[in-house]
Design a protein that fits this description.
This protein is mainly α. The protein has one domain. Helices cover about 80% and strands about 0% of the residues. Helix 1 packs antiparallel against helix 6, helix 4 runs antiparallel to helix 5 and helix 5 runs antiparallel to helix 6. It starts with a helix and ends with a helix.
């Protein structure tokens, strides 16, 4: 009976790690593109129009690309940690993945609540004087978020690799 329970737990942990790896790859590369292409500068400076409203899910806003997948990042990593806890060989990587994912989620929550509403969703773009410090803070927090998502993605990959090797 314990063998079946352990097997199911392993299968669940493997599937959760797969979901976590996919969602973190999506999150990391989306965040990297956002920073390299300076999407915040473009969105913050754009004028609102009927075709391009200044809203979280309006045309040009990255929100519409993250919304379907990003909310599962941290829960999948944390659930994989819980499901895979009994494997000491991958436990450290699962902890690192969950910590990185949670840190990135907290940074995202901060941006969404504290910076994004003023910077991106005010009825009119802010003056350069008001926009510049918000963009600077946005990029600093985004660097933390990008680092956290990279750490989580690498740790998830390492945990999956260890788990696959242990089956051989």
């Amino acid at each position: 009976m314990e063998q079946i329970s352990s097997g199911r737990r392993d299968l669940l942990a493997d599937r959760l790690l797969g979901v976590a790896e996919f969602s973190h790859a999506h999150w990391f590369f989306g965040n990297l593109y956002e920073a390299l292409a300076k999407i915040p500068h473009r969105v913050a400076a754009s004028e609102a129009s009927r075709e391009l409203p200044r809203s979280p899910f309006g045309a040009g806003s990255p929100g519409r690309y993250y919304a379907p997948i990003a909310p599962i990042n941290a829960p999948a990593a944390i659930a994989a940690l819980v499901a895979g806890w009994h494997h000491s060989d991958s436990r450290v990587w699962l902890v690192v993945a969950a910590a990185g994912s949670t840190t990135g989620a907290a940074a995202t929550a901060y941006l969404l609540r504290s910076i994004n509403p003023d910077l991106f969703f005010s009825p009119q773009p802010l003056s350069e004087m008001r926009r510049r410090p918000l963009l600077k803070r946005w990029y600093r927090v985004h660097a933390l978020r990008l680092t956290a998502s990279a750490v989580a993605l690498a740790a998830i990959h390492q945990a999956r690799t260890i788990r696959l090797r242990s089956r051989e």
